[in-house]
From TrEMBL:
It holds the Pfam family HTH_11. InterPro entries: aa-tRNA-synth_II/BPL/LPL, Bifunct_BirA, Biotin_CoA_COase_ligase, BPL_C, BPL_LPL_catalytic, HTH_11, Transcriptional_repressor_C, WH-like_DNA-bd_sf. GO terms for molecular function: ATP binding; biotin--[biotin carboxyl-carrier protein] ligase activity; DNA binding; transferase activity. CDD domains: BPL (cd16442). It catalyses: biotin + L-lysyl-[protein] + ATP = N(6)-biotinyl-L-lysyl-[protein] + AMP + diphosphate + H(+). It is an enzyme of class 6 (ligase). The keyword DNA-binding applies. Acts both as a biotin--[acetyl-CoA-carboxylase] ligase and a repressor. This is Bifunctional ligase/repressor BirA. The gene is birA.
Length: 326
């Protein structure tokens, strides 16, 4: 009921009478008052005026279940929210839920991770109170070979969500980083449980640096936050909701063709290295080329120095800018 009352208060834009809330949810005034009191203790500023009712004045930067559920406006993505104040990793928890039969579109969110990880098992720093740590669980019917493209679907969705909420120039560094002004604000990790020709489930996680004001010395050169770049503190739940809403739209476009043909153009418009020189780092081989964008299956198409076109599959390959991170 807390989610529903919060949503009514948020959408009303004015006062909502206690009796109206009682009638809507079939509960007593005491039950309504207890929910309002709980919301106040969580940091929501709610005004109560006799003969008028309750009015939501301001929402805090919280990532609670009720806050997320009251903001996410989708058909299936994030309709089920599993929230934890602290967890090992939202990807780990999403996979555990997948094993237990959780529904397609389940969203796992945490305020802090103790074992967050990035691509190739790298550690992802996950302090509390400043960032978004979220994973969406999917149960698609396509072949396992198509699952890696979902990383790019999420990348596009995160970049669009950031631009929509902040106006900052978010770009994509192929295949799984989001950058603002040349520094990383988000990493994305997709993992899968599958048989040879069948997917049990896929989880795609995103860690977004939102309100952090500094970073450890070892990553400060390449990492940043939306607050550092924009100078404004953001409500993380609102940004998370925007990302989930865009993900649902982009995922459905992906499912129409089971490739990136419909998302390729908007993705390439945000690709930070598009039409620029890049350094390709393959195991035992390093060379420079010019990136021209992704193809329908999410590979990065580059033109090598000898004039040959080559499609790079993410796998064990890294791509860097010739003069730095991007």
């Amino acid at each position: 009921m807390k989610t529903e009352i919060l949503k009514v208060l948020r959408e009303s834009g004015g006062y909502v009478s206690g009796q109206q809330l009682c009638d809507s949810f079939g509960v007593s005034r005491t039950a309504v008052w207890k929910v309002i009191d709980q919301l106040k203790k969580e940091g929501y500023e709610i005004e109560a005026v006799r003969n008028k009712g309750y009015r939501l004045i301001e929402s805090p930067d919280v990532m609670g279940q009720a806050e997320l559920e009251s903001l996410i406006d989708t058909r299936w993505a994030g309709k089920t929210v599993v929230y934890a104040k602290e967890t090992d990793s939202t990807n780990i928890q999403a996979k555990a839920l997948g094993e237990k039969g959780a529904v397609h579109g389940t969203l796992v969110v945490a305020d802090r991770q103790t074992a967050g990880k990035g691509r190739r098992g790298r550690r992802w720093t996950s302090p509390p109170g400043t960032s978004i740590y979220m994973t969406i669980l999917l149960k698609p019917q396509f072949l396992p070979s198509k699952a890696p493209m979902l990383t790019l679907v999420m990348a596009l969705s995160v970049a669009e969500g950031i631009m929509g909420e902040t106006g900052l120039p978010a770009q994509i560094k192929w295949p799984n980083d989001i950058v603002v002004n040349g520094k990383k604000v988000c990493g994305i990790l997709t993992e899968m449980s599958a048989e040879i020709d069948y997917i049990n489930y896929v989880v795609t996680g995103a860690g977004v640096n939102v309100n952090a004001d500094s970073f450890p010395e070892d990553i400060a050169r390449t990492a940043t936050s939306l607050y550092i770049e924009g100078g404004v503190k953001l409500r993380r739940a609102q940004l998370a909701a925007s990302i989930v809403e865009r993900y649902e739209k982009n995922y459905e476009m992906f499912m129409e063709t089971e490739d990136l043909s419909r998302l390729k153009d908007p993705y390439n418009r945000l690709l930070v290295n598009c039409r620029k020189e890049v350094r390709i780092l393959e195991p035992g081989n390093e060379y420079e080329a010019v990136a021209s964008g992704i193809n329908d299956t999410g590979e990065l198409v580059v033109m090598t120095a000898d004039g040959k076109e080559k499609a790079i599959y993410a796998g064990e390959v890294s791509v860097r800018g010739v003069y730095g991170y991007v």
